[in-house]
DNA sequence: TTCTATAGTGAACCACCACTCAGGTTGAGT
DNA sequence: ACTCAACCTGAGTGGTGGTTCACTATAGAA
C-alpha cells in the first residue's frame, strides 16, 4: 500500500522508545496507563507519540500483536519438536507453563491470548489453530490426550488463563488441573516440579 | 451503630428502583455504566442515588454482595443435599454449571466470584471455604474427586470461570473440562446433557 | 551551506464521569 | 390543616485522559 520510505533516524529512535515504554508500562499496570505517561517515560511529547500511533488502540495493537507473534513462535517450535519425535503432552505442558508464567508477569498476555481466539488477523488465527491441531493430533496418536479433546478446547483453556491477579503458586496449580482435564489419564500429569 | 429508623415510603421505593436498575445495567454491560444512566433508568435524579449510595463503589458492593449471598445459598443447599445422601460430584457439577450459566448472562458474577476469594467480609469468605471443604471431603469419601484436590482448588477454578465473552457452548465445554481435571477418573464426568 | 519535507513540541480542547450542593418537595406525625 | 425533618432535584464542579494543531526544530539531500 504505502511506499516504504525509510524512517528518519530520530523518528526511528523515538518510535523504538515509545514501544519500549508502552511495553513496560502496559505489562506492569495494564492498558489503563495514560498516553501522557507513556510519552513521558519514552522521553517524547504526546504529539510525537500520536505521529507514530494515531490512536491509543493502534499502540496497544502494536504491543499485543507482537506478543501474539511471540506466542505463535513458541507454538511453532513446540510443533517442530513434536515432529522430531518429542512427546506431544510434554510439549503442551511446557507451552502452557511458559505462557502462564508470562501471564503472571505481563498483563497484556491475557489480552493477547484473548485476541487470538476472537479477532486478530485471520491469517494468524488460522496459523494458531493449525499449530494446536497438530499438537492435538499427536496427542491422540500417542494416547496421552483425552480422545474428545480438540484444538478449540486448547484455545478455550488458553484464553481463560489467569494473570497476575493470582499468585504464582495458584497459577502453577491451575495449569496442573487444566492439563488433567485434557489428559486421557490424570495420573500422567503428576510430574512433581 | 445507627438507629434503625424506618425509611420513608418514597425513599424505600426509590432505593428499590435504583437497585433494580443497577442490577440490570451492571449485568448487561458491567461496572462501566455511568451513575447518570443508572439514575435515569431508575427514574431518579443523581442526587437521590447518592443519598442512598454515597459512592459508586457502595452501589457496586450492594449488588455484588447480594450476588455473593445467593451463590453461598446455592452452595449451602448443595452441601445439605450431600449430607442427605446425595452425590458430592453430582452436586459439584450442578453447582458449577449453574454458576457458569449465570456468569454467561450477568457480568457481575465474575466480580462476585473474584471478591469471594480475595476480599468480601471474612465471615462470608470463611463460610464459603467451609462449604467447599465439605464438598471436597465428601468427594474424597466417595472416591469421585482426585485425592489431592482441595477446597482452594475449587475456589481457584471458580474464580477463573469465563463470563459472557464466551458463547454458551464454550462455557459448557469449559465446565466439563474443569470437572475432568478435578475428578479422580475423567470418565466419570461424561454424562451427556 | 542551504533548503525543505519530515518530525517534534506541548498547551489547549473536549468528552466523559464521579460527585456536590443550594434550593424545592413531600411523607408522616401531631 | 400544620410542620419539619427527611427527601428529591439537576445544573454545576473538578479531575482525568484521549486527541488536536499552530508553531518550531532538524535530518539529510542537493
Automatic annotation (TrEMBL), chains A, B:
Residues 12-71 form the HTH tetR-type domain. The keyword Transcription applies. Signal peptide: none annotated. It comes from the Bacteria. Residues 34-53 bind DNA. Keywords: DNA-binding, Transcription, Transcription regulation. InterPro entries: Homeodomain-like_sf, HTH-type_TetR-like_transc_reg, HTH_TetR, Tet_transcr_reg_TetR-rel_C_sf. This is Helix-turn-helix domain-containing protein. It comes from Streptomyces litchfieldiae.
